[in-house]
Amino acid sequence: MSIEIEDKAYCKILLHMIKHTLNNCFGILIGKKKSDNEHLVSDAIPLSHDNLLAPQVEFSLLMVKLLY
């Protein structure tokens, strides 16, 4: 399996991790399947840098779904 990450998404991931080095970082990766074994990540949505609870995840997924 091959996963390609666009620069924009990679930078967002790194910046979120650098900003919150002492905490776990959670987010959503947005992308598409290019073929059976190839995937492309085109964007990353940072969600939290603390414990993530089910209601937060549901609300976050709903908001991302509205944006994309």
- Which CATH-level-2 architecture? 3-Layer(aba) Sandwich
Structural class: alpha+beta
Major sheet details? 3 strands, mixed
Strand segment tally: 3
Number of helices: 2
Instruction: Label the overall shape.
Output: globular
Low-confidence region ranges: none
Please give the radius of gyration in angstroms.
13 Å
List the strand order in the largest sheet: 1-3-2
Order of helices and strands: EHEEH
The CATH topology = Cytidine Deaminase, domain 2
Number of domains: 1
Q: If you had to describe this structure to a student in words, what would you say it looks like?
A:
It is a single chain. A 3-stranded mixed sheet has the order 1-3-2. A hairpin with a 2-residue loop joins strand 2 (26-35) and strand 3 (38-48). Helices cover 40% and strands 37% of the residues. It has a single domain, classed as Cytidine Deaminase, domain 2, CATH 3.40.140. The model has no long low-confidence stretch (mean pLDDT 91). The relative contact order is 0.23. The two termini are 25 Å apart. By secondary structure, the protein is of the alpha+beta class. The longest helix is centred in the last third of the chain and has 14 residues, at 54-67.
What is the element layout, followed by pairings?
Elements: E1 2-5, H1 7-19, E2 26-35, E3 38-48, H2 54-67
Parallel strand pairs: 1-3
Antiparallel strand pairs: 2-3
Entry summary:
Helices cover 40% and strands 37% of the residues.
Main attributes of the structure:
68 residues, alpha+beta, Cytidine Deaminase, domain 2, three-stranded mixed β-sheet, 2 helices, 3 strands
